[in-house]
Design brief:
The structure is a homotetramer of 164-residue chains.
Chain A: E1 18-22, H1 30-33, E2 37-43, H2 48-65, E3 70-76, H3 87-96, E4 103-106, H4 116-121, E5 128-132, E6 138-143, H5 148-159
Parallel strand pairs in A: 2-3, 3-4
Antiparallel strand pairs in A: 1-4, 2-5, 5-6
Chain lengths: 164, 164, 164, 164
């Protein structure tokens, strides 16, 4: 996927193109979350690194910071094994792994295996961690594992900044 | 599942009722494996304890003892979320998690959610670890996590015993 | 040690009473570190929780944030087994565990088993993690394990605050 | 220490040369332990690999197999930092780390930094794991980390063998 352009830090976060939400009475949008720090965790349910590291970190972020102005949002960006990770499978996965934050299913457009939000952000694979500031700008875009100290420090810094 | 009878240590291991095998040119059978120590690891691909502990242990057993007369066999015993864990999903899971020993899909009979081999062995859930000696008798039947030292010691003892 | 008063968040950090420094060409002081965020990690070399969690966290903090205005300082607060943890033992420990930030040996006053800096800060045991802001005020005083996300977030917030 | 000859598997285990025992009402000897499987764990209290892996494994071996004919014995083989790891320090270490099996302090002869039992067994460093069968013969001599499955399998095999 070398042709993908990665959304750089500082750029305005593109809108999410989601075909269905789990764990969300109200579909979250970047607009509605303006003023909060947003952690977008892009994963695939059959990606071992997501299950071992990325999702536990996302759960910990939600448990630690949900009450302090941080919104954690999962994004199921299926770009391979599409038949293996359909919504019915994802729903059972979310239930069994006790994921309690909203999870969106990234939408596909026709035959392209890479889903639309994944394309818009230029993600290279899963897990990808994206942190968006109170003003809707991307502040971190990382493929693979990011240490808790580093993620925590960025969130602390962004929480300390006023919006606007 | 309190009605299930657990196959006790010492009992003859019931035959496997498998509807399809992955990673097996030749479907393994207890008969063909007579003379070897058999480790049967029953799991579900969406069971967190299986993914975190059971399957890594099964992989390590295969990597460590396959050349010494131990046969490691996986059994996908789906008793819940049936639509979420169909063969196409399991195949992708086995690929992504680099599972390189044979995995059988436990067969269902009509409407009973509990598959047939799971019933025959009286398993209470997943993960379940079953160790069978060279003569086809069950020597360990454990639900949940079993420490490597304990599994290793049993295998070492059984490998040291001649077939009867 | 229930008689000890804990230095609360917001209070001015008391000066360090150190009898000898390891890994420090120049003995660090709070005054000289004014303007930086200071992480003070109080430990004992024979405290299992310090070795398993506290010191690895302190090392990671130093490796991650030393270039960004954070000073990590170790403090060997021996309040039991004094004969077992003398400077010669600590020096070998620091060498073997590859601790590369300054470590001060908290000073004792006569027969009191609790050393002076430990008393001044009202520490209840080891490990204790103390975070001091750019203005020399205590912002965290925690006995036991603190998650990396939490420590990271505090440091990020403090780094984002101007001094003064 | 390339001049050291390692005691090979199959050789008779040399006697232990211990200057003092901790956790032992009666000093253990190979003669008195004949008929049991003996696990000798050689360590230094300031060796990070011993603290992180070797000693926890030795504790687990003791907890798991002490009632089944296995004797776990620690050996403090100080060959560096001698002043840092004197008996008073070791005693505090054994207390703090809840080591509850006998620990012998390997004896030194004059100026040689390498202690006598370490020399007799040809150990190359710490941790070293030595497993001795019921007849007093060395069956494993391993420097560094050994997986639990492998240690367990060896112990299981040796427990299954009659003495003599």
């Amino acid at each position: 996927m070398s042709q993908l352009l990665t959304v750089q830090a500082g750029a305005v976060a593109p809108p999410w193109r989601v075909e269905r939400w789990l764990n969300a009475a109200q579909p979250p949008t970047l607009g509605a979350l303006r003023g909060r720090v947003v952690v977008l965790h892009a994963f695939q349910m059959l990606c071992p690194g997501c299950v071992a590291h990325g999702l536990p970190q996302a759960r910990a972020l939600h448990a630690t910071f949900a009450g302090e102005g941080v919104a954690v949002v999962g994004l199921h960006t299926v770009f391979e094994h599409h038949d293996a990770m359909k919504p019915v499978s994802l729903a059972a996965f979310v239930h069994e792994y006790r994921i309690d934050f909203p999870v969106g299913i990234d939408a596909h457009d026709g035959a392209d295996p890479v889903p639309l939000t994944m394309q818009a952000y230029g993600m290279r694979g899963t897990p990808t961690l994206i942190v968006i500031d109170r003003d809707g700008r991307v502040r971190l875009h990382a493929f693979g594992r990011v240490e808790d100290l580093v993620v925590g420090a960025l969130i602390g810094r962004l929480l300390g900044q006023a919006s606007g």
